């Protein structure tokens, strides 16, 4: 185990960087120069240290480790003929085995010295485990990992707290661009940057020291140094009222900060009393603490927590029967028997009182799978909310802001019961709630309602419809005559790109890769062929054969996370990996509203389970019924995952409505 | 606002000719007792259980409307808010709807036939309708096996052999869309399926084991348009529904206003994009979504379509319509038998219901799946099997009642034998009358010692 670890720490840091920053550019300065292209460059500049240390210490078992030649390949300008695909493939597969097995070993056999250290060192890690933190594994290693980035990112969160008031007021057009860094007062940003740099160094030091098994005292000293730096930064930040522009920068940082759950101030305050500035910190701390709580999303429900599940069930509108043979590794995800919920919910159509009909309709459509795809789901939800707001009237003796927020929350929880939210929907809900909260008190009810409705309209229009058009324009420039484009599954924006490129007269061929059980690619095939495109259709098991002829891969995404991981339909990672091995550039098309600040390293901790029955059946083959009644066999568990995470190493470029971002 | 934006219209009908001599001026079809409750109460209580309390009941004929209105206001005071509308006789279901159409305001209308006895939740139909944004959604249920299933008598067997009036229903492979519908009379000839529909879905599943339960959810605007434009349409089932199915790929109904109210974006140019995006993955019969073509270059004259959907009731649900005498006895038998949860009574240990005020003579037996309402008296050595006996009946000694329905205030003298028959209110059966598979109209007097088999007896 130890033998294998050092090489990875050597090879990783460069590869696993957060955000979309290029390695060549010095992160902080780069963000000043070309704002539109480096989306969230400032956010990228801050936490790579945390990332690196984290990745260095634990690698999740599912994540496919990046190939060694990650830095050289994937440049979209050079679709070089693959010199020796077989060998590169073999190397990859070798690495996969090493990575996955090794990592699980790490999880099982945590070095005994590491876990106690984490406990004593930073009580926050425990806290962060029970609240939402994307990488809380149950293993000791994960704990160690989360503790250090936590401490290093405290700083970022502090900034959030300071700018929290102004941060929310960012214009809806640019919650993700951090062009605003340019506009912030130079003094502050400079200071922040300094602090950031300091933190980075600290973080790097921390990760190093951990490996060297530092003493307790050393670590404490380190932490205190960080604390002091943070307090200084806060004072500097608190002095100036942040403008909306700086606010948006802060938002970007907030998102970063939220990912790594900030260690609670209350908890470690008494435990480790920092000698310097403890009293004043508390004074300053209070309001940010509150703000932060508002910002931090509620802890995601862990479905292996029996007590909580029971509670949730009692509240649930949708009757949920738990699936029988659950896969051990995925017990924390919501898993219910599919097929029983829909008739049950349909029968209750008239019984549910507070539900708005349009919300109910959307819930049913989610549940029946009639609406799927994150754009479609998001639009459907927004339109339903729009209608609900239109029909809303504030009950007497209640404030619109509060009551409507509660209403929307109840709708959202109903929708979650129908199907777990997609990340894009989560972002959208956050946007909507923010708009509601920001309604001025002086506004009359009808004004408020119409303003919210037009906000929703604008969101749909700007963030989805127009964003798609912009993405199409960008992407078409990447299609040249004679190209062979490969796509996987059914992505609305990729389809639009292909059709548009065909309409503007580009000569190209399309390879549609599909997979069971949904076979969504057939729909795409049907539509493209009807439009006169030259298509090839194949299944994902033939991906390595077809990849020879492909010159570009266009993929859609459910979300792009802040470490560059692409969260998308299951199978995407495989396609991207093979493309990468063949030196075929992978272009991810994703609207910016789907970006999320979460960092996810594997597709275990957050995923969605589909109906296991559908993978036991093969369409058109009634005779293949060996898995009928599989649920009766306790030794058999079927797993139908909906999403997977593609590491950023396999992605050459992300095309968003703000421009194209290169990955290297 | 109506609940979930749905309004309910119950078509209670008038005096059906098919049910002669059971129905009369005094007892319209809706008030025919099923297990000693008017048949309409089953629908009303089903709706009440679904929280649908604002109803419009349409009745054919002024007298019948008065009677039904009187009964509803007595039985459902404080429970339901019912408006009874009277329409002239013979206008058909479409005509009945036309009379109340102008009062409807909600987005969708649920139309239920008053003779339906079922436990399928109307919400399920409504939810399916909503989910698909359909123009019409029909409730289909497995066609009931006609005739007494458990008696084993020859009569029952004969009836079971008789070909059931079957419907031909064409569904798409996912069994959600209604593609073809033909009623019993048209079945003898060839079935004509529209080529365009077949091409659109690729595959049609033809079913004959489904029954149209006459519970429909309609989009209100579309229904009103059709009622206005097609004034020849007489019935929902024979005119409106086939029309909608026929034109679903080439819609003539103005679906436009509906779309606008759905999304209502101020930016019209993005309409198509939006629809396209939001329906992107809807892998329905492919042709249904083709028209919303790609937004950047939307087709100028996209074909308009609408959806006709079905909700197919689960086999375990009970669903029957009281539209024939045979159905009447079947439903009576089922409501006290296998579908006993519908009756709303609690059954005794012997699996029957005997009102405490009923008096039984010595050595009289009342078998399982029987019902004996209040105030009825049975003499000695009587035997009642699988039958329903109404209120205040006086029944003498040595009377056998099997598989029969005896309504209220009936006098049956000693030594009578009644099998498979329906005896209406105020009938007098004198001594040693033998009835088999007969229907006796209200107030009729059957003279001493007469024997009848498969006859319909009524006052002239």
Automatic annotation (TrEMBL), chain A:
Q: Compositionally biased, Basic and acidic residues: which spans?
A: 1-15, 209-222, 279-308
Give Gene Ontology CC terms: cytosol
Q: Does the keyword Protein biosynthesis apply?
A: yes
Reading the lineage from the top rank, the first entry is: Eukaryota
UniProt feature, compositional bias: Polar residues: 115-125, 171-181, 243-254
Q: In which compartments does the protein localize?
A: Cytoplasm, Cytosol
Which keywords does UniProt give here?
Answer: Cytoplasm, Initiation factor, Protein biosynthesis
Q: Which residue windows does the record flag with biased composition (Low complexity)?
A: 40-61, 76-88, 223-239
Q: Which GO terms describe its molecular function?
A: translation initiation factor activity
- Quaternary arrangement and interactors, per the entry? Component of the translation initiation factor 2B (eIF2B) complex which is a heterodecamer of two sets of five different subunits: alpha, beta, gamma, delta and epsilon. Subunits alpha, beta and delta comprise a regulatory subcomplex and subunits epsilon and gamma comprise a catalytic subcomplex. Within the complex, the hexameric regulatory complex resides at the center, with the two heterodimeric catalytic subcomplexes bound on opposite sides.
The protein here is known as Translation initiation factor eIF2B subunit delta
Biological source species: Musa troglodytarum
Automatic annotation (TrEMBL), chain B:
Fetch the InterPro entries from UniProt. Answer: eIF2B_gamma, LbH_EIF2B3/5, NTP_transferase_dom, Nucleotide-diphossugar_trans
Sorted alphabetically, the keyword list is: Cytoplasm, Initiation factor, Protein biosynthesis
Q: Which Gene3D superfamilies match?
A: Hexapeptide repeat proteins, Spore Coat Polysaccharide Biosynthesis Protein SpsA, Chain A
Domain EIF2B subunit epsilon/gamma LbH, which positions?
355-447
- Extract the GO molecular function terms from the UniProt entry: guanyl-nucleotide exchange factor activity; translation initiation factor activity
**GO process annotations (BP):** cytoplasmic translational initiation
Q: Where in the cell is it found?
A: Cytoplasm, Cytosol
- The Nucleotidyl transferase domain extends over 9-151
Q: What is its main location?
A: cytoplasm
Query: A Gene Ontology CC term for this entry?
Result: cytosol
Q: Does the keyword Disulfide bond belong to this entry?
A: no
Family classification: Belongs to the eIF-2B gamma/epsilon subunits family.
Function text? Acts as a component of the translation initiation factor 2B (eIF2B) complex, which catalyzes the exchange of GDP for GTP on the eukaryotic initiation factor 2 (eIF2) complex gamma subunit. Its guanine nucleotide exchange factor activity is repressed when bound to eIF2 complex phosphorylated on the alpha subunit, thereby limiting the amount of methionyl-initiator methionine tRNA available to the ribosome and consequently global translation is repressed.
Subunit composition and interactions:
Component of the translation initiation factor 2B (eIF2B) complex which is a heterodecamer of two sets of five different subunits: alpha, beta, gamma, delta and epsilon. Subunits alpha, beta and delta comprise a regulatory subcomplex and subunits epsilon and gamma comprise a catalytic subcomplex. Within the complex, the hexameric regulatory complex resides at the center, with the two heterodimeric catalytic subcomplexes bound on opposite sides.
Name of this chain's protein = Translation initiation factor eIF2B subunit gamma
Lineage of origin: Eukaryota, Viridiplantae, Streptophyta, Embryophyta, Tracheophyta
């Amino acid at each position: 185990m130890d033998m294998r670890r050092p090489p990875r720490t050597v090879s990783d840091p460069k590869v696993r960087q957060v955000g979309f920053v290029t390695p060549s550019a010095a992160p902080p300065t780069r963000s000043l120069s070309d704002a539109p292209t480096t989306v969230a460059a400032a956010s990228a500049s801050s936490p790579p240290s945390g990332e690196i240390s984290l990745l260095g210490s634990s690698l999740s078992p599912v994540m496919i480790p990046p190939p060694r030649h990650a830095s050289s390949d994937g440049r979209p300008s050079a679709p070089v003929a693959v010199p020796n695909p077989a060998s590169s493939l073999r190397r990859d597969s070798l690495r996969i085995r090493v990575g996955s097995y090794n990592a699980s070993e790490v999880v099982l056999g945590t070095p005994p010295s590491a876990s106690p250290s984490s406990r004593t060192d930073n009580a926050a890690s425990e806290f962060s485990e029970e609240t939402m933190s994307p990488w809380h594994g149950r293993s000791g290693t994960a704990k160690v990992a989360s503790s250090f980035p936590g401490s290093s990112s405290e700083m970022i969160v502090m900034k959030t707290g300071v700018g929290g008031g102004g941060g929310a007021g960012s214009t809806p057009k640019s919650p993700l661009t951090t062009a605003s860094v340019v506009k912030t007062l130079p003094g502050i940003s400079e200071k922040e940057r300094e602090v950031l740099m300091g933190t980075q160094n600290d973080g790097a030091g921390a990760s190093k020291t951990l490996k060297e098994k530092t003493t307790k005292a050393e670590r404490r000293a380190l932490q205190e140094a960080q604390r002091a730096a943070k307090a200084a930064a806060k004072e500097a930040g608190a002095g100036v009222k942040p403008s909306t522009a700086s606010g948006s920068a802060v938002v970007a940082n907030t998102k970063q900060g939220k990912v790594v759950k900030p260690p609670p101030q209350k908890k470690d305050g008494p435990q480790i009393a920092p000698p310097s500035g403890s009293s004043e910190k508390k004074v300053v701390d209070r309001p940010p603490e509150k703000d932060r709580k508002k910002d931090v999303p509620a802890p995601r429900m862990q479905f292996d927590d029996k007590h909580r599940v029971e509670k949730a069930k009692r509240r649930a509108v949708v009757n949920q029967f738990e699936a029988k043979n659950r896969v051990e590794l995925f017990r924390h995800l919501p898993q219910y028997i599919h097929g029983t919920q829909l008739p049950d919910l349909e029968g209750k159509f008239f019984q549910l009182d507070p539900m708005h009909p349009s919300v109910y309709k959307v819930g049913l459509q989610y549940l029946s799978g009639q609406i799927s795809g994150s754009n479609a789901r998001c639009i459907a939800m927004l339109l339903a909310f729009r209608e609900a707001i239109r029909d809303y009237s504030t009950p007497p003796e209640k404030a619109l802001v509060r009551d409507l927020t509660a209403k929307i929350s109840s709708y959202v929880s109903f929708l979650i019961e129908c199907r777990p939210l997609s990340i894009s929907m989560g972002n959208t809900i956050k946007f909507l709630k923010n708009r509601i909260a920001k309604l001025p008190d002086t506004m009359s009810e009808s004004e408020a309602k119409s303003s919210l409705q037009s906000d929703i309209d604008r969101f749909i229009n700007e963030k989805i419809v127009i964003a798609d058009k912009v993405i199409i324009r960008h992407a078409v420039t990447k299609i040249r005559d004679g190209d062979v484009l490969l796509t996987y599954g059914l992505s609305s924006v990729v389809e639009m790109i292909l059709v548009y490129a065909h309409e503007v007269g580009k000569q190209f061929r399309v390879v549609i890769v599909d997979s069971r059980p949904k076979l969504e690619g057939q729909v795409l095939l049907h539509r493209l062929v009807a439009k006169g495109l030259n298509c090839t259709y194949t299944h994902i098991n033939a991906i390595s054969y077809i990849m020879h002829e492909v010159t570009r891969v266009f993929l859609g995404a459910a979300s792009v996370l802040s470490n560059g991981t692409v969260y998308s339909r299951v199978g995407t990672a495989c396609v991207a990996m093979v493309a990468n091995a063949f030196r075929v550039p992978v272009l991810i098309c994703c609207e910016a509203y789907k970006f999320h600040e979460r960092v996810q390293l594997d597709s275990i901790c957050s995923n969605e389970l589909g109906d296991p029955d559908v993978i036991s059946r093969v369409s058109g083959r009634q005779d293949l019924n060996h898995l009928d009644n599989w649920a009766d066999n306790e030794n058999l568990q079927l797993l139908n995952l909906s999403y997977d995470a593609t590491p950023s190493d396999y992605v050459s470029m992300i095309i968003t409505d703000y421009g194209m971002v290169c990955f290297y | 606002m109506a609940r979930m934006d749905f309004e309910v219209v119950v078509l209670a009908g008038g005096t059906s000719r098919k049910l002669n001599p059971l129905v009369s001026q005094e007892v319209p079809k809706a008030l025919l007792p099923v297990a000693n409750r008017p048949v309409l109460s089953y629908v009303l209580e089903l709706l009440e259980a679904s929280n649908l309390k604002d109803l419009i009941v349409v009745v054919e004929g002024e007298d019948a409307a008065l009677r039904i209105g009187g009964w509803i206001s007595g039985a459902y005071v404080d429970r339901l808010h019912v408006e009874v509308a009277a329409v002239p006789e013979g206008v058909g279901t479409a005509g009945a709807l036309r009379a109340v159409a102008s009062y409807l305001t909600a987005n969708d209308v649920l139309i239920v036939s008053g003779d339906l006895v079922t436990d399928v939740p109307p919400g399920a139909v409504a939810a399916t309708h909503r989910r698909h944004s359909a123009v019409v959604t029909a409730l289909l249920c497995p066609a009931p096996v006609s005739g007494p299933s458990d008696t084993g008598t020859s009569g029952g067997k004969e009836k079971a052999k008789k070909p059931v009036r079957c419907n031909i229903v064409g569904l798409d492979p996912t069994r959600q869309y209604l593609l073809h519908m033909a009623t019993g009379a048209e079945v003898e000839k060839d079935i004509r399926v529209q080529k365009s529909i077949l091409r659109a879905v690729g595959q049609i599943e033809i079913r004959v084991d489904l029954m149209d339960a006459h519970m429909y959810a309609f989009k209100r605007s579309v229904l009103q348009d059709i009622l206005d434009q097609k004034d020849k349409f007489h019935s929902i089932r024979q005119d409106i529904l086939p029309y909608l199915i026929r034109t679903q790929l080439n819609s003539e109904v103005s679906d436009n206003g509906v779309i606008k109210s759905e999304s209502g974006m101020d930016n019209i140019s993005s309409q198509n994009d939006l629809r396209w995006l939001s329906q992107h993955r809807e892998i329905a019969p492919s042709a249904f979504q083709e028209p919303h073509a790609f937004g950047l270059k939307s087709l100028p004259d996209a074909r308009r379509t609408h959806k006709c959907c079905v909700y197919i009731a689960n086999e375990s649900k009970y669903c029957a319509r009281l539209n024939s005498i045979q159905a009447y006895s079947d439903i009576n038998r089922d409501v006290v038998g296998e579908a006993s949860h519908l009756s709303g009574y609690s059954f005794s240990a012997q699996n029957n219901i005997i009102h405490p005020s009923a008096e039984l003579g010595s050595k009289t037996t009342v078998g399982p799946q029987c019902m004996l309402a209040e105030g009825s008296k049975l003499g000695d050595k009587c035997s009642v099997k699988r039958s329903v006996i109404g209120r205040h009946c006086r029944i003498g000694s040595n009377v056998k009642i099997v598989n029969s329905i005896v309504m209220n205030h009936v006098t049956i003298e000693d030594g009578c034998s009644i099998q498979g028959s329906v005896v209406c209110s105020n009938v007098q059966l004198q001594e040693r009358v033998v009835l088999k598979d007969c229907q006796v109209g209200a107030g009729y007097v059957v003279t001493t010692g007469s024997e009848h088999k498969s006859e319909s007896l009524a006052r002239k």
